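Sat 14:20. Reprocessing the chain from the morning session after the first attempt stalled halfway. Input below, unchanged.
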Amino acid sequence: MSLLSIDFLETIFNKEKESTLSGKWIRYNDIKELFQKYEDTFKVTQLGTSEQETPIYKLKIGAGEKKILLWSQMHGNESTGTKALFDLFNCFLNSTEIEIKFILETCTLLFIPMLNPDGAEVYTRVNGNNIDLNRDAVDRKAKESKLLRGILEAFNPLFCFNLHDQRTIFNVEHTKNPATISFLAPSEEETRALTTGRKETMNVIVAMNEMLQNAIPNYVGRYTDEFYPTATGDNFQKLGYNTILIESGHYPEDYIREDSRKYTFFSIFQGIYHIAKTTNFSSYKDYFKIPNNDKIFYDVIHRFPNSKQNVGYQFKDEIIDNKLISKLIKIEENSLNGKIGHHEIVFES
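Finished this time. Tokens:
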């Protein structure tokens, strides 16, 4: 297995990180001017428009036979993958490392960095018609869902990367570490059978996990593989398009998802490089060594001595006066045994 070194990834990330993008609220206006600088290196074209007529762009690069489709922000309020993709675009634009050249010789890459610009504009999960694109893979009522399915069938990728964010509640099972990155090889039907396609998807995830264990050991989890009959990844996998789900999560003190952005970038780069280097994707069993996600975290816990009325709070993000504001919302009030706060305040008796 060809693993990229953490030193290499750190160096290239620090060099190519897109400095104009930061924080959690990434909108179309934040990225539209960036497309211009890629036009000489990528094939940049408008894929279509959203329900509210905002442009949706695709970027294509590479000349290899292995086709890889990557998309981000199908949920408008999940932008970590978008930031990581633009960091990766800068690598293809500026870097001359042999790893970059090999990827472009071996693979053809097609990116949709913001599938749901309407949701991104107002920081919501759903699109402009209140449709969750990740639950619209069968009905395809949304324009954005139709665009994604159309490009999938026209491009016919060997692998897909479906980029999402996950909540701060998740930890790596049997640890007190947040699940900073979680992976999933989606199920194709209710029995969760290990089809050839799922095994191949697991193979790529194994490579990404092994790399990350050298960077953030025990901060990587495995997302539930419960079958969702209307979900994008499950349906694409069922249709024969191997789909890798990356869930970018919390890292200690990283509420704006900048550390998470870096490890998402590491994961995508390693995944693409592994696909480029690999001819046999049949090895998969180490996928099941990745711990499951668990849910033990609150953002804040107030603890009272000898009390069964400890209080757990979660941040809720809202747009107020055109700013992203995080408010603490009370979620649970009891003993909170087995729960951990990313921050805990202990009150004296």
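The radius of gyration is 20 Å.
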